[in-house]
Write a structure and sequence with these properties.
Length: 329
């Protein structure tokens, strides 16, 4: 950090220009002296993302963006409109190294862990582009947030800061593939965010097949970490469960899952898997989804099936980014 011998309140002014007014140059900061603006220009840059592609759904206004980072990496972000407000799904890494077999983001590994500024910029750029206020963020784009731990925590604190965007922590959802040690670390941060854990299986046998990360993070220890997380934070956990035909969607699977989640303060989000052409996975039939939901609900597990947004611009879960990169090659 460079000390530039300015009064403390200047920092607040600059912070406001960056995080409330979304200034993209120091010259816009009209309440700073010429001299200070020049000094800032000389020593700092304001991060920005280059929009390289945008797809807008005619059905529900869901908007998918591809942004290019300074080092030419491509990331994907999504704007979604709900009755309770607008939410942006951001990427925390360009690519991912977790290797889930149904996920397109991980096919080429991780290229870069994003800085807090690169995460913030996704939200700010989308607000500017849509001309709409964004009230919630989900960390469910490409990347494993807990594999970029420090930057993700900084991002949460920045977007939550009163002097900045002031987004409520309860409007922030962090989704992880289940890195146990990091879940304990996160519990100690004393945050009010929602933790979502990608479970996708009722036992290690199935989970090991589709999520290699599960070998080092077995389910009984993971669920214990979730129980401890709830005890520490008093926050309900969301479990994500992507339904893949004939892999994890049987009645048996649902019963086993219900048994394991008994007594845990949680909510299950069922997501019919998006077919990934690079793999042989096919989404479960509507009947299988209904059956799965029914079994969980009847056993007292609160369950919803995720509503599909932007079905006319279907390029879910890193597939838009993957296609763009392949075309460029
Ligand atoms: N790495 C984090 C967050 C990014 S992925 C995590 O694993 O949770 C966000 C969610 O999308 C995860 O639940 C992930 O498992 C799921 N997902 C990835 N590919 C998918 C696909 N093809 N269909 C449905 N869900 C998918």
């Amino acid at each position: 950090m460079l000390l530039i011998g300015e009064k403390k309140f200047r920092a607040k002014q600059i912070y406001r220009w960056l995080h409330v007014k979304y200034a993209d140059s120091f010259s816009q900061m009209s309440d700073l002296s010429e001299n200070l603006r020049a000094k800032l220009e000389e020593n700092y840059t304001i991060g920005s993302l280059k929009q390289v592609k945008k797809l807008v759904s005619k059905i529900d206004n869901t908007t998918k963006y591809l942004f290019e980072l300074d080092n030419n990496c491509i990331i994907e972000s999504v704007f979604m409109q709900y009755s309770y407000g607008n939410t942006v799904c951001i990427s925390t890494q360009a690519g991912c190294r977790m290797g889930c077999t149904f996920c397109a983001s991980t096919l080429d590994g991780v290229e870069k862990s994003l800085s807090p500024s690169e995460m913030l910029s996704q939200v700010y750029e989308i607000e500017k582009d849509k001309g709409e206020t964004v009230s919630g963020v989900v960390l469910m784009g490409s990347g494993e947030p807990l594999d970029n731990y420090d930057n993700v925590i900084k991002f949460i604190k920045l977007i939550n800061s009163k002097e900045g965007k002031n987004m409520g922590q309860r409007h922030i959802t962090l989704s992880t593939c289940g890195l146990i040690n990091k879940i304990y670390e996160l519990a100690d941060e004393d945050l009010q965010i929602t933790l979502a854990v990608s479970l996708h299986a009722p036992n290690d046998m199935i989970r090991n097949r589709i999520m290699p990360v599960s070998k080092a993070n077995p389910m009984d220890k993971l669920l214990q970490a979730c129980r401890d997380y709830v005890a520490k934070t008093n926050r309900r956990i969301t479990f994500e469960y992507s339904l893949i035909k004939d892999v994890n969607d049987s009645a048996e699977n649902a019963k086993e899952l219900a048994e394991k989640l008994k007594g845990l303060l949680c909510h299950v989000n069922l997501i019919p898997v998006n077919d990934v052409k690079e793999r042989d996975y096919v989404r479960s039939t509507n009947e299988a989804v209904k059956r799965f939901e029914g079994i969980l609900t009847s056993r007292g597990i609160e369950t919803t099936v995720r509503r599909k947004l932007g079905s006319d611009i279907d390029a879910a879960c890193g597939q838009l980014r993957k296609r763009y990169k392949d075309e460029k090659r």
